[in-house]
Amino acid sequence: MRTHLxxxxxxxxxxxxxxxxxxxxxPLLGDAGLDTAALDPDIRPGDDFYGYVNGAWLERASxxxxxxxxxxxxxxxxxxxxxxxxxxxxxxxxxxxxxxxxGGKVGAFYKAFMDEDRAERLGSGPIAAELTAVRTSRxxxxxxxxxGRNPYGFEATFFDVSIAADLKNSKRYAVYLSQxxxxxxxxxxxxxxxxxxxxxxxEAYVGHVLHLINWPEADRGAKQIVELETRIAEASWSKVQDxxxxxxxxxxxxxxxxxxxxxxxxxxxxxxxxxxxxxRVIIGEPTAFTKIxxxxxxxxxxxxxxxxxxxxxxNAAPYLSSAFEDAWFGLHRKLLSGQEQQGERWKRAIAxxxxxxxxxxxxxxxxxxxxxxxGQLYTTQYFPxxxxxxxxxxVRHLMASYHHRLETLxxxxxxxxxxxxxxxxxxxVKVGYPDHPRxxxxxxxxxxxxxxxxxxxxxxxxxxxxxxxxxxxxxxxWSMTPxxxxxxxxxxxDIVFPAGILQSPIFDADADAAINYGAxxxxxxxxxxxxxxxxxxxxxxxxxxxxWWTAEDAxxxxxxxxRLSEQYSAFHPLANDASVHVNGDLTLGENIADLxxxxxxxxxxxxSLDGQAAPVIDGLTGDQRVFMGWAQAWCGxxxxxxxxxxxxxxxxxxxxxxxxxxxxxxxxxYAVFGVxxxxxxxxxxxxRVHIW
Length: 692
What we know:
This protein is an alpha+beta fold and about 700 residues long. The chain folds into 2 domains: about 400 residues, Collagenase (Catalytic Domain) (3-Layer(aba) Sandwich); about 170 residues, Orthogonal Bundle (Neutral endopeptidase, domain 2), CATH 1.10.1380. About 50% of the residues lie in helices and about 5% in strands. A hairpin with a 3-residue loop joins β8 and β9.
């Protein structure tokens, strides 16, 4: 489902095996839990705080050939992956052909993916039924119906459908529709000349895939598909526009939708999505809907069929024979992200069964998994109650600090302050795993039917959401599996910290409190602040989209946010390409959350001392360790290709700016590190941005 409807998550990448360079980059922890061997004392903190804390690590570490990144967070994901590997292998070794227990089903799914010989023998056979349905479609209505299968099938769609809490009636669920239809990461790949190489490679890939399934006139079809997707890209809203929760909340009846976007059979589409009883939907991008529906109505049937056949195959490719899987990797991971080599098959099997942190924008790893079932098995074995209790204690301190800051903000008036405090007090904190496990009793998983397993798992997941559509919103629900190395702030005023993120260096039960406050404490503060960022602030204490701000306070917030956006838009993440820059408007919500999170963490650390002086450890003061804990948590390297993709498609800033862009706006940082005019990160006090 779309980010603005479900959660505001921290950016996370995938995992990799260790090279010799990464072995050398393993942490040398001081008494505080800080990797002292990562520091580069030759870099002035005021010139590059990120480099000062992480420079030696960055110099030693390298990105492995089978990944497009290597980061501290990936070290964490590496540990999770190793645990999941052992667990899945153990279950696969004892599995029956069609097991009935949860562990057996996880093992059978893993075993089915690992059967590479079977995948080679079957070729494209597992998706023959889908391709036949496309070939035999004779009307646009039948093609619209195929698109309606997208939530639970390999079929692609021009319009994404999801189910989430209604932003203006937060006790009920609603059906959301949003723009879709393109195969590249963002509309800019079709429209900006800087991505012409990627667009040309994509057209070649489309043609290659169509040849693999023996589609008639494959090369001509590929050209027409890219032309069609270019038209969709031209009609689509930008990522910045799509972040606006006011602009993307457009409720209407199906009759009104048909009038807005004629030429597309909405009844056939919704019926196929198992939503035939739906009488009201919420549209994300109205002007785009009109134009995309027109593109559907005007495109030749043969082009629409070729488009669907290609995308079905592309969506299924990671589960098919090597000819399909290798081609998929060459485009999606190598060309678009800079990953040089395909990961080992067992790692891909784990992503298929458990879900994949790496796959935020891919169907693979987000579709047809047993993620919730894997999470049940993972937390039973690897998440002790003591860790949960310590994190919950940290959350209480962060909540108290935020409460105090809201009470004392100098730019907020009493009426807005009262509403903000009221909203903060409604937040629910969820740690480790959901209270209610998902029921997999009736899901059939077989050890010799990989594509069938994916289909059935996806169908069960979609049925879960469809079945609860008429029921009241379940505020205990989670949008992220327990084994995920991430966290989020949801629209139900919940902040969620899965077991996967609760490990070093983000959280270490044995580390110094200052390091924990700088890492997990700032992450907690980040998620809390999302409820009050440029979009989260539009949701009230009841979880509904409502303007609860005075005009003066809203103007003050917008002015401060605009200054922060301007700062980030001046950042250039690639030293060898000045044309690549951060989009301060696209990343504004995450940047506000980072700034608020670290500010709150420092306050909460001070409060935790109960009036006592902070100890000096490893020659570092408590405040220094808080800032350094944050910087260490974001340490990492990514490929240039991934950075180019990130700045146009990801609402999170590159890692270096999640550190340097934040600390330069916090007054205490200047004092504890002696930052002065003339240092590269120095900002005059009156130009620093203070929001929360």
